[in-house]
Amino acid sequence: MLESLITSKTRIRILVKLFLSANNSGYLRGLALEFNESTNSIRKELNQLSSAGYLGKEKEQNKITYRANTKHPLFNPLQNMVRKYVGLDAIVETVLARMGHVSRVIVIGDYAEGMDTGLIDVVVEGENLNTIYINQMAGKIESEIKRKVNFSFTDSYQQKNGLVIYDELIEK
């Protein structure tokens, strides 16, 4: 979906990195190393995205750090597109369908930091969860979003790290 709108793979990678979670940030050389691309191609995309207002930048010591501009009028639609591109919406829909009482769904690991590595680690928090259902549905989700998904289940997730993609208290 996103590839048909945006033809630059570098731009898509930057959008995934910075828009999957508004807390993610990056700087030129770090992104070039992470994406294994030249600094020139990264610089070109960062300059275009920041001049259009999609990215904010701030100087920290000797480097400029970029992050998504949450005040931009298209921030929410862009973030939703990125999350759909990664497949987070499909994960939430499937988990909530017949999972039981789900209180939160949290993405941890690489995807929480905006790295599109192909393996999404998901923590499902809730009581009396139907883990058999989600384990049966995992293959269907993976073929739909073209990424491997690793589910773990808990009644209380205490870690501070992670990207909350569903919270029953917020959704109500």
Name its key features.
single chain, 172 residues, alpha+beta, Arc Repressor Mutant, subunit A, Beta Polymerase, domain 2, 2 domains, four-stranded mixed beta sheet, three-stranded antiparallel beta sheet
> Roughly how much helix do the residues carry, as a percent range?
40-55%
Ends: how far apart? 29 Å
Strand content: 25-35%
Q: Could you give a short account of the major beta sheet?
A: 4 strands, mixed
Low-confidence stretches: none
Number of strands: 7
What structural category arises from helix and sheet content?
alpha+beta
Compute the CA-based radius of gyration: 17 Å
Mean pLDDT comes to 88
User: What would CATH call the architecture of the largest domain?
Assistant: 2-Layer Sandwich
Protein name: ArsR family transcriptional regulator
InterPro entries: WH-like_DNA-bd_sf, WH_DNA-bd_sf
Organism: Formosa undariae
Describe the structure.
The protein folds into two domains: 76 residues, Winged helix-like DNA-binding domain superfamily/Winged helix DNA-binding domain (Arc Repressor Mutant, subunit A, Orthogonal Bundle); 85 residues, Beta Polymerase, domain 2 (2-Layer Sandwich). 45% of the residues lie in helices and 26% in strands. A four-stranded mixed β-sheet has the order 6-5-4-7. β5, α7 and β6 form a beta-alpha-beta unit. The longest helix has 15 residues. InterPro entries: WH-like_DNA-bd_sf (IPR036388), WH_DNA-bd_sf (IPR036390). This is ArsR family transcriptional regulator.
